[in-house]
Structure formats: structure tokens, C-alpha cells
Amino acid sequence: MLRNIYLVFLFNFIWALMVLMPVIVPFFESRGLSMKNIYELQAIFGIALLIFEVPSGYLSDLLGRKKVLILGAIAHGIGFTIFYFTDNFMHLVFAEVLLAVGVSLYSGSDISLIYDSLEASGQKKAPIKLMGRRLYFKQLGETLGGLIGGWLVLWSMDAPVIAQAIVAWLPIFPILLIEEPPRKILNQKKHRENFLYIYRSMFKHSRLLNLILLASMFYGGATLLAVWSFQKYWKDLGIPIIYFGYLWAAINLVVAIFGRYAHKIEKSLGSSTLLVILGVLPIIGYLGMSFSYIIAGILFGLCFQIARAFNSVIIADGINKRVSADMRATANSISSLGIRVLFIMFGPLVGYIIDQQGVHQVYLYLGLFYIFCFIVLIIPLLKQRIFFDPIEKQSHPVV
Predict the structure, then answer these.
(1) Considering the domain boundaries, does residue 393 fall inside one?
(2) What is the pLDDT of residues 156-204, one digit of tens each?
(3) What CATH number is associated with residue 38?
(4) What is the pTM of this model?
(5) Is residue 120 part of a domain?
(6) Which of the 8 DSSP states describes residue 181?
(7) Neighbour-count burial for 40-68, b at 16+ CB within 10 Å, e otherwise
(8) Residue 292 region, left (φ>0) first, then alpha (ψ -120 to 50), else beta?
């Protein structure tokens, strides 16, 4: 079963090998989209995820991780293949909906597969370390994708699009080698009872779990909103597009490094200190970029990448060790769903403000919003610290 975990690492590396991402905003602009259109397109992507996210997690809990991941990989490949043939907004909408189906099927299932395989193997490895390695390999894939995309755009804007259409089919191969781990499975006929069981376990069992879920959603949303503005910010700073690939690779390498050592940072600083850092990072990032009109402002953008690493490892582990295996994929999907709901709510507005007032102004508004989030989310979460698990433990009791 431990082989499954390494195959999940490989799957994440290949899935994240997105050579189009470092120039995705210029690509959309080449298809006639404004920043408002781009955020609207991502909001549509988010709405599609809103529809498919939780059902796909439930499907994974019901039918198995491997089957769902194979379907997700197929949708992923088809979606990016369509990108090459798009020439208007509606074609892009169709492609994004397919990509949303792929992401929803992938989201949560791979993480659940790590925890399920570890439990089935009987090994005593701390899952938080494996979560860090998963993120590390995923971001290494995105780092390499950024470099390749930056080189390909030197030939033409179509070159990274063609390469992406090919690379997008590769994640299916490691999934075919995975062995479905044994675990307790939800009743395949009593769906109403299953949903009530999941609802009670997720939202009625623990205030700490509720706050962890909200933190995952809002601080995941902070990174998502920021990342889709980075390329516009770089462009406004006068950075040539040929450097976008290197910048994209660099920011993802930061996620990889901090994700890889997140558990050691938590052990060194303590869970409470790390939560404070997670809450402060988006504030520093948004306000710093808002008042920076020089290239050094890019450094403030790294705050979001560090926050992403902590959220993807520490907060995600906090969720997964507090839910049982029979509903784990659904729990992860609910967390991802919340992030997309936030993007649907704020994304088009952010894009509109960027078009009308500029990217610096929207960063100011978002910085103030995350000061509010720190007060209403991080401080109450810190008050629950008496229920935090001791960091030195290898296995964690459910709170």
C-alpha cells in the first residue's frame, strides 16, 4: 500500500505540470478577454466546481478513489485539448467546465488515498509529513511547468497551448498502477442517511473542526484571488512576458520548499504561532503589493505562496485527522468547495475593480478584508488551542 503514496506523489507532479499557467492571462487576453472576463471565466469554473465538488467527493467515498481519479484525469485531458481550438469566450467556458469536472474528481481523492493507504499499511508514519511531500512534488511539477511554458512562449503563444494539450493526458498513467486500499465504505443505497451522517460529523461534532474548515476556505481563497492577479501585476510593473515563466517557477518553488518543511516549522514554532503567521501573511501580501510600484513588490507576493503551503499541509492535516476514512474525500471536497464559493462571490468584482481602478487598489481592499478575517477566524481558532493535538505525536486522536 505504501507504493500508492509514491504514485500519488507522481500523479500530483504530472497533474501540476501546467506549461500554460505562466502565460494563462496573456493567453486569455489573446482570445479577446478583459480582466473582468478572465475573472468571470474563473467564476464559471468555480460554479461548475460548486456543482460537482461535493458529489464527486461522495462518489469517491462510495465507489473508490482509483475510479474517480481516472475519470478526473480523462476530463482534465479533454479540457486542455479543447483550449487549443478555442477562439471565443463560450468555447473557453465549455473547456473550463470540463476542467472543473476533472478538478472536482481529483480534489480530495488523492489526499484521501494517502491517508487510506497509510492506515491500510499499518505504518506509523505521520501523515502530515506525507502531505508536505505531496505538496512538494506538486509544486515542483508546477515549477517545471513554469520554466517550460516560459521557454515555449518565446516561439509563439500557441506553443504552450499545444504542449499543455499533450501533457494534460499524462496523469492517467500513474493512477492506473494504484491499488485501491481496503477501508470502511458508505452504504451505496442509503444516501440520505449517508448525508446526514456526514453533516453531523462535519458540522455538529466539533467547533474546532468548523473553524479549521473555515480557515481552510478563506485562506485558500486569499491565495486563489491573488494568484489570478499576479500576471496583470507583473505586466503593470513593466516586466516582459518572457520572464513570466521564471517568475511562475520561482513562486511555485517557494510553495514546494515551505510545504516540504511545514511540519518541521510547526514543530519549531508551535501550532498557535503558525496560525498567527497564516493569518498575517495575506495582509502583508495584499497591502505590500498595494503600495509597491517597483519590481521589489513581487516579493510581497511570496506571502501568498507561503500561506498556501501552510494551508495545504497544516490546515489540511487538521481536517483529515479529524474525519473518518468513509467520509474523508467528501470532507476534503467541502473544504475545496468553500474556496471556490469565495472566488465566485469575489472574483468577478475583483476583476471589475482591476479594470476600473487598477490592481493596486484591489489589493488595498483585500488587505483590509483579511484584517477582518484575522479577527473573526484566527483569533477564535486560537481560543480553541487547548484542543490542539500535541505536535510530537505520530498519531492523532479525533477531537
Answers:
(1) no
(2) 888 999 999 999 999 999 999 998 887 666 555 566 776 676 667 666 6
(3) 1.20.1250.20
(4) 0.75
(5) yes
(6) P
(7) bbbbbbbbbbbebbbebbbbbbbebbbbb
(8) beta
| 369 within domain boundaries | yes
Tell me whether residue 398 is in a domain.
Answer: no
Residue 210 is placed in which grid cell?
A: 468548523
Residues 6+ apart with CB under 8 A from 367: 282, 283, 285, 286, 287, 290
Q: Identify which of 43, 289, 254 has the alpha carbon closest to the alpha carbon of residue 143.
A: 254
Domain count, the chain: 1
Question: Identity (one letter) of the amino acid at 74?
Answer: I
Structural domain harbouring 23: 2-177+201-387
Reported as a single tens digit per residue, the pLDDT across 119-145 is: 887 776 677 788 888 889 998 998 999
The total of other beta-carbon atoms located within 10 Å of residue 395's CB is: 10
- pLDDT given at position 398: 34
Taking only the tens place, the pLDDT of each residue in 231-263 is 899 988 889 888 988 998 899 899 989 988 988
CA 54, 322, 390: angle at the middle one, nearest 5? 150
Per-residue CA distances from 393 to 127, 396, 397 (Å):
11, 7, 10
